[in-house]
What does this fold into?
Amino acid sequence: MSGLPTHGVRDLIVVGAGGAGLYTALCAARDGARVTLISSRPLAEANSYWAQGGLAAAVADEDSPAAHLADTVAAGRDAVKLSAARVLTEGAPEIVADLTRLGVTFDADREGRLALGLEGGHRIRRVVHAGGAATGRRIVRQLSALAAEHPLIDVLEGTPVTAILTHDGRASGVELRGGERRLGTATVLATGGAAALWARTTNPRPAVGNGMLLAFRAGAALADIELMQFHPTAVVGTNGTSQADGFLVTEAIRGEGAILCNRAGERFVDELAPRDEVARAIHDELLRSRATSVALDMRGVDPGLFPNVVSHLRSVGIDPERELIPVAPAAHYMMGGIATDLTAASSVAGLYAVGECACTGLHGANRLASNSLTECFVFGRQAAHAALAEPALAAAAAAASVSTSTGPPPPLTQASREALWRDAGLQRTGEGLARLREDAHPLVRLIATAAITRTESRGAHKRDDFPERDPAWDHEHVVLTPGSAPAREHWA
Ligand code: SIN
It folds into this structure.
């Protein structure tokens, strides 16, 4: 579509080509919009490509969206925005059906029904996978192929976005590296999370929250960015296996019976408790024993169910059929992000956010396993529908749009990553967070500000100086708006 004008009625800009961006683009194009899909990396290399988890969806006969909602709420520690979680759980089954129509083949059991996995915090098997732990890869490959050949989708690969453009108080498009501009009636950020800001992480290196900073600079509010979820079972690389460090061993393996043991070979936690509980139990066990890892024992699990995990572990010198896997928590998923409503709209008109870069509030203070891929699609569809109803750009917008760039952010240093792990890891103190507020990286400083504001412990956020959950903070969210003091907002 390079011959088409770069702006006009119902032109949509989508930034990010993971599951959320691809699906948003496809939904919008299906409704007749012209979409520019911009990815800083080649298609099919986005964060969701690496997602081992599946999609949580109430598709079993004995399941229901209400039961899925109840588990989401219980895991979220009295911080889940109910209306958002309802949109997710009610929309999830149709998403599985739509992805199937789009050519994604979900794993089936011997009778040909969807094979459903069990993960922490779910009281019932409800996680659909495609290719076992290769779900993200399969979905992203299929949607990338559809987007690449769609006549209404113009794909720009390897093209970083440097700023959001605004006109008359509305987002009017983006500026690309090199200065080129792309205008649209709506701009959707689907730029992924920020867990790679932390030194120990399961995420690929580019997941450092750049989209959150772009939105903040354009005036959008961020919410709950102090809430980083630590995945309990990331490999701890030793001398011989250091290239495995941070490799995620999917929770679905615990769902099939793998257990966690301490040095003495004793179990110390319910392996299928919600993720914050398991991660914290491991953290406490490591402090107590002064060990650097606990052991994940999957010797009793059928390796054929997780072929790519098993082959990756073997490739780095760990044979999970015979050996224990050394694991410890690592930064994995940001519950917070660009504050969005039920249509995925941010606080800036015309600017939307979907997936991990967004904060709908649906995850509360502790995301339920495999709700995040589902969120990418459910809210991607919401964003596409709402964005298509945005008013056309004013004729003057092409010439008069203003870049919100304040120059490139300082590069993320290893020192910042280590500071974040030390001072905003599984155990935090006011003193450490105050130190972090002086960090060179702007998003690290904002995370520290949000974490200082939440004067309690809840879900993934544990402060030694405020060790208890404070009921006065139930359903309260920390909102950071450019130019304003941090605020508390009650979300229902
Ligand atoms: C996992 O498979 O353990 C991770 C999936 C998720 O983060 O939901």
Residues 276 and 460 are 6 Å apart (CA to CA). The first helix runs from residue 19 to 30. Residues 10-227+335-403 form a domain with the FAD/NAD(P)-binding domain fold (CATH 3.50.50.60).
